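Just wondering, can you check both lines?
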Amino acid sequence: MKINDNLRELRLGRNLTQDQVAEKLNVTRQTVSSYESGRTRPDIDTLIRYSEIFGIELESLIYGYDKELKANRRIKLVAKILFVLLIVISASASLIYLSAHLYFSLPEGGITQELMPVWHAYWNLIEVWKILDFCVSVVAYAGFVLLFILLISGKSKIPVKTKLIFAGVLSAVLLSIPTICGIIDPKYSPQEYILTEIFVTIRLWVFLGIEETVQIFKRKKR
């Protein structure tokens, strides 16, 4: 990880603004912004002052050895993997469910011999959809529990704003794709598509609320 990324992550983890850090360093906010963006590099004296402000060793600040930085990177990696997995599995399930209804929908009445291949294809797709829909719930639950454990047990300091953005974006994307498929589907309504995603979204916000409550109690004990 680059020094500028470490500076930004440590500042955010302590809920400090660039103006507050600038005041402590006796520089302008633009200077701090330049350090964090990587446009300019702080000299050794400034880095020493940074290490004092953040309460870590200079070597940890420069090379990212600090436990907080490592914990933050671990959480962000898990969050990114979870985000991609949930979106891919949910989108695949919705598209398969939609395909079954668009291309293999059976007419009302009895099933003739000629329609048997269509009937088998339809139910094969429905079975695949059920498996993927179940996987969405399992992956979400396992991922949320893992993130919860990492957030409350480690030395990580992920800002509340960052967690809210992650939860908001994940919820929006997770609900939008099935909803669009449900609108296109001539047979079923969007509600048929987003039921699992709604439960996953609720579970996400519940986990986030519990985690933040635990963090508040931890801060009060200090």
Q: What stands out?
A: The mean pLDDT is 87. The chain has two domains: 3-63, 67-221. Residues 116-153 form the longest helix (38 residues). The two ends are 30 Å apart (CA to CA).
